[in-house]
Amino acid sequence: MASPLQSLLGNESSYTKSFQIFLDYSTEHQCMHEFIDTILQDHLTSIGNDKSELNVLGIGSGKGQIDLHILSYLKLKHPGVSINNEVVDPNVEHLKSYRELVAKTPHLENISFTWNTMTASDFKDKLDKETEARKFDFIHMIQMLYYVEDPGEVIKYFHGLLAQNGKLLIIIVSGNSGWERLWTEYRSQLCYTNANHYVTSDDIMKTLDTFGLKYQHFDIPSTFNITECFGANNEIGDLMLDFITETINFRATAPPDLRDNVMALLRHPDCSLEKDEKFLFNNTFTAIIVES
Ligand SMILES: C[S@@+](CC[C@H](N)C(=O)[O-])C[C@H]1O[C@@H](n2cnc3c(N)ncnc32)[C@H](O)[C@@H]1O
């Protein structure tokens, strides 16, 4: 029987809305900023080989908040160098917000932006048609490998485009996060598009090991305050549930057993910490820095 559930990924504006609620109620971006400020910035110094130009590629950049933070450090570490920043994301609304953010952010001179409203695989096809081979000094894939058909192939292809001394940054939910716990239990019932949506840092590091690539990884604790999920008639809670389950209107459309079991697991100590009457979902993620 066809699943009554509709994938959130097929509906751009629903996805954009739920993702924004996730960002508003989680420490995701704050923790990424701290990681960039404390760890990543040192890794950005050695890229580029003293060239007068740096080529950067962001895949699945979303609204660009994290990209601009990384770019500010690239400017700082490589003063006077021009930066070509290639942006790839199929979500029109996200790229519109990214452009608006660029328009109002000062000190972006020396950085040019090329917008590619397309998936990683369409961008690969675009590059394959170009006559001159492209190389990038820094590539990032931040919280996006869930959405590609074959994460291993995407990593292999884009890693192959790194210039000498280049680096690839992958950020993905951690193998010890609440996400992993939820997916282990309910992947088969929630999985109605393609199985690769449920990758964690453990899967990615196994893939990198298989390819024989050298990398360092950093687990970054983060939480998602999901308390609103447990209130009645709560639009914010509904959007949170949609993001967590990648389903449009999960509360209303999921079979009652599945809905109740998922909700019970979300508040279980395996997934969330209960503190001051709040449920803080374990949103730990892992940043992996891969050498060229
Ligand atoms: C969870 S958001 C992360 C956005 C941003 N990197 C951040 O951390 O704020 C995932 C992004 O991946 C994009 N995306 C979805 N499928 C993609 C694909 N096949 N190739 C590239 N990006 C994709 C989505 O449109 C969305 O902007």
From TrEMBL:
Native organism taxonomy: Eukaryota, Metazoa, Chordata, Craniata, Vertebrata
How does it associate, per the subunit comment? Answer: Monomer.
GO BP: any one term: methylation
**Coiled coil (residue ranges):** none
Q: What residue range is the signal peptide?
A: none
Q: Which UniProt keywords apply?
A: Methyltransferase, S-adenosyl-L-methionine, Transferase
Matching Pfam families: Methyltransf_23
- Keyword check for Transferase: yes
**Transmembrane domains' residue ranges:** none
Q: Which named protein is this?
A: Histamine N-methyltransferase
Q: What positions does the entry give for substrate binding?
A: E28, N283
Look up the domain of life of the source: Eukaryota
Q: Which InterPro entries match?
A: HHMT-like, SAM-dependent_MTases_sf
List the Gene Ontology MF annotations in alphabetical order. Answer: N-methyltransferase activity
